[in-house]
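In this notation, each integer encodes one residue's backbone shape. One such record reads:

___
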Amino acid sequence: MPIIYALANQKGGVGKTTTAVNLGAYLASLGQRVLLIDIDPQANATSSLGVDKRTVEISTYDLLVRGAPLADVTQLTRQLRLDLVPSAPALAGATVELVNMPQREYRLRQALEALDQRHDYVLIDCPPSLGLLTVNGLTAAADGVIIPVQCEYLALEGLSQLGRAIDLVRRALHPDLQLRGLVMTMYDVRTTLSRQVVEEVQSHFPGRVFKTIIPRSVRLSEAPSYGEPISSYAPSSAGALAYEMLAQELLQEDRKSQPPT
């Protein structure tokens, strides 16, 4: 079975989707077969991979609400070994429609039971909220949650709220849910604040913060508008090098933790 991670943070603008897309792209470039699942109604991960969310015919809405088979919703992208389950604006209404459905918190988890050996990694891009869609992402995250954290003071306050939500999901829905790690994003080498935030997060989550730090980068901000991950848009930029290092770090650690065959 593939390794399944949810990328979550209820605070918007922290680099969550940027991390999901570019981590997925670099894992793919390292030879891993990756499936990126976009369960954010904003569909930014979908657009970032060059798919027009306005013309998507079948999406995560159909997967979660209508029970469409995973294979029918999965599509190829322009990136080799990187597949996508796209989102669409219709997903915005899913929270209301899911309320009265049986096993509403497990709809994505049940859909992923159809996964086979076709993929090595599944990355779930959750919306910037703690609602039912994010809960679906967390309950489906068999191998843990990755939290991107912006290097600013207010990000620290949001972390405690997210931590409580993860604990609640763990107690009520997914006892094996783990915090896989925190990714520090939008690091500005010119400011003392960025360094202080990193040190504060590291002190509160010892051993849980990835060594790779993602810098603030204009190229990273530009890439989605061209429908490309940073690996193809600006492969020599600082942001690209950082996400390549993050993918290598994650892959190396995952290989160490896997039981010998």
